[in-house]
User: What shape does this take?
Amino acid sequence: MTLNRAQLVRILYWGAAALLMGGCNHPAGEISNRITFKKKLSEYALFRGEMRNLVPADGVMPIQISSALFTDYADKQRLIRIPAATKLVIRGDGLPVFPDGSLLVKTFFYPKANHSGRQIIETRLLLYSGGHWNAATYRWNAAQTEADLLTGGAVVPVYFQDSSGKSRHLEYKIPAQRDCGTCHRSGNELVPLGPQVKNLNRNVNRDGKSVNQLGYFMENGLFAHGDRKGISTLPDYRDASLPLKYRARSYLEINYAHCHRENGSAAGTSLSLSYTTPFDQTGIAYNRENIVIRMQTMGEYHMPKIGTTIPDAEGVQLIRDYIKSLAREDQ
Assistant: This one.
């Protein structure tokens, strides 16, 4: 039998996809919480005044990261609260050392299509207790006055206007608690993803001034004072003024390296996508065509496995441009 070109491409694609996926379809067991979360988000007193305004309460500090995970174009507010008389400690470029009782808060919302405010969908908590991270998700009610603990996941219809002015509709999926380990797994433990030191080492606006965020945190008691000279910065992949390969590697790091890394849920595959992994050890060259296909095709082999219902058009284009550049320059 003679195969035409289209048939051959399909065979090669699915064969490569199966090899790349490897252990992805056979994740380790569920990681259970070791604490009991409160039933209502309001019980954590994270916000001052009406909850819908998302104004951090005293002792709750906003944080910003350079490179952020794509979640169906949702906007996100990130907060942190640590116990009094404690501080985070820098230990290299990765996650800082968190004191027991640290609480990371991430709220997902969309601007309403008619510009009449925003629709808050969910708030996720990561609570560090007894040397272990625990995860919970709270779904906001229609009145935007409260959020209730959710364990089984949910689907929420969303109508919004994206940054280009295009009206969009999607069925937003709030993950179930058992899904947290899909992305936040490191071996048999849950870990945060975004607040790595290199992702926090950026300039932010505070009190009308542009300041280094790590320095600001040190001055305001969140981090212990330390030397920042050896700390790198994860590039903002949205910054078109930066070299393409740095933006692309940063995008791959924050969106996919949580699975495609040592101790991640896809550690046994042919991809290793951490930003600091040398290019010749990433598997990007071998999987270059397959990566783009998996990013833009929803379904069983989509990257990432959960957390999105639509492709990231801008992200796909970024990685497509990067893949094309691999044939033109020495990596």
Notes: The chain has one domain: 11-326. Residues 5-21 form the longest helix (17 residues).
